[in-house]
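Onboarding guide, step 5: your first structure request.
Type a short instruction followed by the sequence, for example:

Predict the 3D structure of this protein.
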Amino acid sequence: MMRLVEAASVERSDPPRAVVPLRISVVQDGSRLHYGLPLGLKLAGILGTVHTDWFVRPGSLEAMAVDWFARMGGATGRRLADRRCAGLDDSRVVASGWVGLLARFLEGRGETPEAIFVRRSQAIASQVMADGWRDANGLAGFVRNIDPALCEAARCQGLAVVLDQMIAPIDVQVHEEARQAELWPNWQSSRDRGADIMRRIERQSWDAASHITCASDYVRDGLIGTGVARERISVIPYPVDVGAFPFSDRRDRKGPVVVGFVGAISLRKGAPAFFEIAKRFDPAKVRFVMVGPITAAPALVERHRGAVEVIGSVPRTQVRQWLERFDLFLFPSVCEGSAGAVMEAMSTGLPVVTTPNSGTPVRDGEEGYVLGCEDLAGMARRVDQLVRDQDLRLRMGAAAHDQVQALTVLRYGQAWHDLLRRVCAHGGQDISPFL
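The system replies with structure tokens like these:
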């Protein structure tokens, strides 16, 4: 009797669904994550078309132009020159090219960055709709840099839409920056000017998405606190190109210990805290160096930097050389998604003193130290501890290197593949989190 019941049960069960091959279109603004998302999807065998504004193909007119721009100097030329990726099949990339570049040159100087981002995202959305979906059954992109209307159109066409929240929600960001402005009254933040625009874009994007990813618990908690259901969020850590940032042996260093920073020199990234901590050390014994674009007022940075050596913006190809010169990494950021600069520093074997808001894989007491954004005394104490104890620096630096070795583009693509497979299996509807 039991066998008959079992057989009847099998006969009545629905036949298994056919596995439909995944084909994912990506909206890629700039070179975000150094093209880590489309590269990861390509390695996973599910990349469809990549839509972007500017992409440099070998031997193209764009390549000759950006090489000339780079020789002329300037941050804009360097950014344009970095819009290339040898790992992507050129045939997969659709770029607006010169039309998009001209539109950027014509942008109004008085506009907020948020208003400019909206117009750029709408331009790429028009490009995607004109090009068509090319048999895609999924769309991937980044909240704040993909047009919510495009996401809604994709859902209406039956595509699964998975979006990455690349930084904590705007309400969290505004709160953190406002608190820093109170602590550092001479530093100014213009974030409130465009906050309403970003708030609207975020809400519309979350509503249009089948599922949301983020790279850290810090961002996930911010999303939940802003009202996004926990089950709609999956944490997928960002990748780091460990091959481009190999381990550096720092055992035989001579001279002052170098405390380094890579990133935008701004209020949000913790520049005032970095400057303040540097004041507590003897510059003959400890050097503090900041590498990155100065997004705060240059005169303000000059007035407050004290003993800090501010290098300014450098080509991405030089970042590794600067990291190799550092002995430890201080990153007191107050709001991130997951700082790639920290993971690159870890890959080279640098111990890190940072905050939980940096969203990095640093574990307190293992690869460095994690302290509250306002605990400057604590950060200075931990920096001093690492300065004085070379064995501790080397041990934590080695642990940092080991910690990020698994965060490869291949792993990132596989994690997205598994998540997208589950989303598509549910008809593009919300699913439980993928952790």
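Each response can be followed by summary notes, for example: The CA atoms of residues 168 and 219 lie 5 Å apart.
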